[in-house]
Specification:
Elements: E1 2-7, H1 15-21, E2 29-33, H2 40-46, E3 54-55, H3 61-67, H4 73-78, E4 83-87, E5 90-94, H5 96-108, E6 117-121, H6 127-137, E7 141-145, H7 153-162, E8 167-171, H8 173-176, E9 183-188, H9 196-202, E10 208-216, H10 225-232, E11 236-238, H11 240-255, H12 263-277
Parallel strand pairs: 1-2, 1-3, 6-7, 6-9, 7-8, 9-10, 10-11
Antiparallel strand pairs: 3-4, 4-5
Helix pairs in contact: 5-6, 5-11, 11-12
Length: 282
C-alpha cells in the first residue's frame, strides 16, 4: 500500500528503497518519483492528487511557496520545506531537518553552552536550517565559515535582517587558525572530501572548547575525518547518517504516531543500508 510520495533529492539517499528492503519497516511503503521538470503546481495536482504525505527536496521550496496558500511559521523562517502533509482540507508544510536539529543537539550534549559561539561551515540549502535551529536553542554568536567571504555576503545580510540580537561573523580558512577555543558547536555543510585543505584546517578544531559538539551533514564517505578528529579529542559528535536518519524517523512517526521502534534500532538498520549503497572510490 502506497503511503507517501518521495521526490528524488540529490542531497540525500532516498528513503523508499531502504524501507522496501527492510522487513521491520514493510508497513511503510511509498513511491519514489523523479524531480519534476515541468510546472510544479501541475505536477502537484496530478502526480500528488492522492493527497498523501510528500518528502521533497529543498530545491522545490521556491516553487511550493509560489503556489501555497498556507505556510508554517518554521517553513517561512527557514525559507525551505522538506515535507508536506494534507490536513484539515489543506496542504501543510514543515521542515523536519530543522526539527531534527532541535531534537538531536540537546539530546547529545545536555549542557552545551549556547553562551559560547556556534559555527556553521558552508553556505548551502542547509545553512539556513542550522541558523534557525541555533537561534531557537539560544545561540547569540554564530560564526559562518566560508570559502570566500564576498560570495557569502548576501546570506550574511539575510540572516542579520531576520535574526535580531544574534551576532554573525564571517570567517575564511585563513581566519580559523587564529581563532581562540571559545566555540561550543560546529555543524559542517561543506563537501570536505572534495576540499582537502579546508578539511585539514577545519579538523584541527582549535576554535572549539573542551565540552563541544561537532556535526556533519555530508553523507559520503561514511568515514569522515572531521568526525574522527572530534572523537579523537573526546568531543561529542553527530554523523550525517544519524542526522538524515532522524529526519526520516520523524517523518515515519508523523505518518504513524503509533510507530514504536526505538530510534537506536532504526538507526542501526539505516546505517547498515548506507554502508551497502556507499559509492566506491574509483
Amino acid at each position: 500500500m502506497n503511503l507517501f510520495f518521495e521526490i528524488e533529492d540529490s542531497l540525500r539517499v532516498p528513503l523508499q528503497p531502504f524501507l522496501a528492503k527492510t522487513p521491520q519497516l514493510k508497513n511503510f511503503q511509498g513511491t519514489l518519483v523523479p524531480k519534476p521538470t515541468e510546472d510544479f503546481f501541475n505536477f502537484w495536482q496530478t502526480t500528488l492528487k492522492d493527497r498523501k504525505p510528500v518528502l521533497l527536496p529543498f530545491s522545490l521550496s521556491e516553487a511550493y511557496f509560489s503556489q501555497a496558500t498556507h505556510q508554517s511559521l518554521t517553513a517561512r523562517e527557514v525559507g525551505s520545506v522538506d515535507v508536506l502533509f494534507f490536513e484539515d482540507a489543506q496542504w501543510l508544510s514543515s521542515c523536519l531537518l530543522r526539527e531534527a536539529l532541535v531534537d538531536l543537539i540537546p539530546n547529545e550534549i545536555k549542557d552545551l553552552s549556547v553562551l559560547s559561539k556556534g559555527f556553521i561551515s558552508g553556505i548551502n540549502e542547509l545553512a539556513a536550517v542550522s541558523v534557525s535551529a541555533m537561534s531557537y536553542l539560544g545561540f547569540r554568536k554564530i560564526g559562518l565559515i566560508v570559502e570566500e567571504k564576498k560570495s557569502a555576503q548576501n546570506f550574511l545580510n539575510q540572516v542579520r535582517k531576520k535574526y535580531f540580537g544574534i551576532e554573525f561573523i564571517l570567517y575564511d580558512e585563513a581566519d580559523l587558525t587564529l581563532l581562540p577555543n571559545q566555540g561550543s558547536f560546529l555543524i559542517n555543510h561543506l563537501p570536505l572530501s572534495e576540499m582537502l585543505s579546508m578539511e585539514e584546517t577545519l579538523s584541527y578544531l582549535n576554535f572549539l572548547g573542551a565540552e563541544s559538539l561537532v556535526m556533519n551533514t555530508e553523507l559520503f564517505p561514511l568515514d569522515q575525518i572531521l568526525i574522527e578528529e572530534a572523537k579523537g579529542v573526546n568531543l561529542k559528535s553527530i554523523t550525517a547518517g544519524r542526522y538524515w536518519g532522524y529526519r526520516d524517523y520523524l517523518f515515519l512517526k508523523k505518518m504513524d504516531p503509533h510507530f514504536e521502534m526505538p530510534f537506536s534500532k532504526y538507526l542501526g538498520l539505516w546505517e547498515s543500508h548506507l554502508e551497502s549503497v556507499q559509492p566506491q572510490p574509483e
